[in-house]
Amino acid sequence: MLFKYFRMRIKNDIKNCKTCVYRQMLFGNLNDFEYKLVNDVRTESLYKRGEVIKRENEKVDSFLYLRKGLVKLYKTDKWGKEQILSINKPGDFVNLLTIFSKANYKYGIEAVEDTLVCNVELEVLEHIISTNGDFAMRVLNRMSNISEEIIENRFEQGQKQLKGRVATILLYFADDIYHKNTFNLPITRREIGELITMTTENTIRAFSEFKRDGLINIQNRTISIQDYERLKTIAKSG
Question: Which of 9, 71, 94, 219 makes a 20 to 30 Å CA pair with 52?
Answer without folding.
Answer: 219
